[in-house]
Amino acid sequence: MEISVKINGKDIKADIKPNTLLSTFIREHLNLTGTHIGCDTSQCGACAIHLNGDAVKSCAILAAQADGSEITTIEGIASGDKLHPMQQAFHENHGLQCGYCTPGMVMSSIKLVENNPNISEDEIRKGLEGNICRCTGYHNIVKSIKQAASVMGG
Amino acid sequence: MYDLQYSKPSSVNDAVAEIKKSSDAKFLAGGMTMIPTLKARLSSADMLVDLKGSNLSYISVSSSEISIGSMTRHCDVASSSDIKGSLPALAKLAGGIGDHMVRSCGTIGGSLANNDPAACYPSAVLALGATVVTNERSLKADDFFEGMFETALNEDEVITEVKFSIPEKATYIKFPNPASRYAMVGVFMVKKSDGISVAVTGAGENGVFRCEEIENVLNLNLALDALNNIQISHDDLTSDMHASAAYRANLIREMAKQGLKDLI
Asked: Is the pLDDT of residue B180 over 90?
């Protein structure tokens, strides 16, 4: 079947099998491999992207469901060489170790902050329920998001 | 995932017509359970009929009743100022399902049709005595849930709307499984003019159930210490790797004790 999506500002038409996951479409058809697959059970959140303005898990959605949608992946949030404030904050606060969960953390937390500009540390920790990190113990991730929130809000 | 076809009809009638074309077709109502189970080959379908195009996402609130379209997402219920105003326990429940990314996709109709024994919404529907409206009929909550992952829905029947009467007071207290965020035990408690009703999810071997032991006590004595000494029978409760039946029975009482503060 044919689908049309706008991804990172670019209009794309593609012929896909209806059982293609959106994460597979993004990684293997479009070669946007910043969106990661960390589990088989849709629990880890490494595949988070923005679909029509919401953070979603792209491994739990069919590409077919995204027909006609606007998608942003981790590759689409910087402006040229200027990192998104969330990326910059992860960089400055060392909000990662191995980096595998980071694209999902960044995409998920951008929406947490956009939907709650004065987000508290407690709300950040609760908000990250759907994003699993096995390295950091989360402290620097939370610090990063707190810093990004002050930049994004102000 | 096995091969399948996908269609997104633009009305409920078209969706029903579409699903009748195949013997192994399933409705897709958000997909937060459906897609992961298809992925894991725990279930299969030769056709998915997506209800997203069928105009079933809406919330309407009157002085006595809340009507929620079946494709309304958890995040929309959680953030609705109308629901927060008239039935805040329901907004709180929706805001505690899964994580914020799951809540951006999952829907009330999908949750009810699946009737996961640890899902949150069934407890609200049962305790509030909600009406589940389908393309064929209206079902009372008592008649809708028929056991673990079982409902009264026919094969080609679609939930279109859920209607909640607004009670005097209601509350939902959940002890989430720390990994899945599903309810290890969730207790939805309602105070109406005709008495107290209490529904429990996450604990029953046959899915969501009304807890008459707690209802009977509270209907006689709605006091903060009324539940301190009661014993909840664990005969029909679930034992699994997460918790024994006895532990769940204890959690039911403890969650209900917390909830009691909101009802008085």
From this structure: no
Q: Helix (H, G, I), strand (E, B), or coil: what is residue A138?
A: coil
Q: Can you give the length of chain B in residues?
A: 264
CATH 3.10.20.30 residue window(s) in chain A: 2-76
Q: Complex ipTM, two decimals? A: 0.97
Q: What pTM was estimated for this model as a whole? A: 0.96
How far apart CA B30 and CA B133 sit, in angstroms, is 18
CB-based contact (8 Å) between B40 and chain A? yes
Q: Search chain A and give the residue with CA nearest B32.
A: A60
Q: Which residues of A touch B102 (CB under 8 A)?
A: 57, 60, 130
Tell me: do B106 and B184 sit in the same domain: no
Residue tagged 């009703």 (tokens): B197
Distance, in Å, from the CA atom of B241 to the CA atom of B34, rounded to the nearest integer, reads 23
Report how many helices (DSSP H) and strands (DSSP E) chain B contains, helices first. Answer: 11, 12
User: Domain holding B19: CATH number?
Assistant: 3.30.43.10
Give the type of residue at B112: L
Using one digit for the tens of pLDDT, what is the confidence trace for A62-105?
A: 999 999 999 999 999 999 999 999 999 999 999 999 999 999 99
Alpha helices (H) in chain B, listed in sequence order: 12-19, 34-39, 74-79, 81-86, 88-94, 100-103, 108-114, 121-127, 141-144, 212-220, 245-263
Question: How does residue B124 score in pLDDT terms, banded at 50, 70 and 90?
Answer: very high
| Residue B44: strand, helix, or coil | coil
